Amino acid sequence: MGKTVKRFITLLFVFICALSQFAISAFAQDWPNRPVRIVNTFAVGGAADILARMVADHMSGVFGQQFVVETRSGAGGMVGVQSVAHAEPDGYTFGITTISLLVFAPITNPRSGFDPQRDLTNVAYIAGSPIVFVTNPVYGVKTLRDFVDAAKKSSKPLTYSSSGVGSNGQLVAESFAQQAGIRLEHVPYRGAAQGLTDLIGGHIFFSSQTVSSSSGHIRGGTLLPLAHTSSARLPDYPDVPTFKELGYPELVTTNWFALSGPPGILKDIVEKVNREVVRAMQKPEIQARLRQDGLMAEALNVEQFKTFIESEAIRWKPVIERAELVGK
């Protein structure tokens, strides 16, 4: 092959690459030019749904296109997440993910083959809510010490609800039981609401749920909070102690929510969405709503969020193994 031909092929290759980059850049700049879908992977009315609508409202105003929330719940969020993972990576489908989906699920069910870093584009951290132990006031348990004493005196394990097997609520409860030397019996539900209803009805002893899910019952006095997993007391719940201050420093965590999309979304689109999610969560009116529901936002860029997910997996894997929740 002559030098002229080689040079022509090289120039043609460079031209094609440049043209491709131009087309990609033009596509990213034109995005969005039609409605964008945000899949709420959990029940309507829950924290995931509320946060999805907060993000959608902000995005609609910023980009001049409708961001529409579509609920596809089931299997602990996996039904919705799988629909997002298999969508076209064109920036027109995103979904609400959680610590349970991005961190716990791959550890508790390693044979599923689901890898949240490979099978999703994890775009932005939205907000997180601490886990709180709540009980029915009729049981006469007013403090965490009372709770431990009741558990040790009981001939049977104390029953509790969470949002499901492998949820953050279950992991916190099981970790606490190991540290406190008590026996608990997990009663999983498909979501927070039914478990809290059964607690109010006296069918279980306590619930390990997010503050955001329990906030209405706490404020209304129908449920009594014993302790939560934030690192410090919450401004809107100053009388509720933390597990940390009560001698359980390892129990500092939040059940966090994120925005993810299918793998392969253009970097420019991912960064645009990340920036706007961060901006949305910093709005004073949204901050006020988040505090009321015990939710806390954190500004992480795309790379920081990726590192955060990896660090959470490292942290929680031994906890999950000690609780014997790893699938065979």
Structure explained in plain terms:
The chain has 328 residues and is an alpha/beta fold. The protein has a domain at 28-127 and 257-314: 3-Layer(aba) Sandwich (D-Maltodextrin-Binding Protein, domain 2), CATH 3.40.190.150. It contains eleven helices and nine strands. It has helices at residues 3-30, 47-63, 78-85, 99-108, 144-153, 168-180, 192-200, 211-220, 267-281, 284-292, 302-322; strands at residues 36-40, 67-71, 93-98, 121-135, 158-162, 184-188, 206-210, 224-228, 254-261. Strands 1, 2, 3, 4, 5, 6, 7, 8 and 9 form a nine-stranded mixed β-sheet that branches. α2 (47-63) links the parallel β1 (36-40) and β2. α2 (47-63) packs across α9 and α4 (99-108) crosses α11. It is globular, with a radius of gyration of 23 Å. The N and C termini lie far apart (58 Å). The model is unreliable at 17-24 (pLDDT under 50).
**What's the alpha carbon Rg, rounded to whole Å?**
23 Å
Count helical runs: 11
Using the coordinates above, name the CATH class of one domain.
Alpha Beta
Helix content: 40-55%
Structural class: alpha/beta
Which superfamily, in CATH terms, is the homologous superfamily of one domain?
Bordetella uptake gene, domain 1
Low-pLDDT segments, ≥5 res: 17-24
CATH architecture classification name of one domain = 3-Layer(aba) Sandwich
What number is the mean pLDDT?
A: 90
What fraction of residues sit in β-strands? 15-25%
Q: Please name the CATH topology of one domain.
A: D-Maltodextrin-Binding Protein, domain 2
The succession of helices and strands, N to C, reads HEHEHEHEHEHEHEHEEHHH
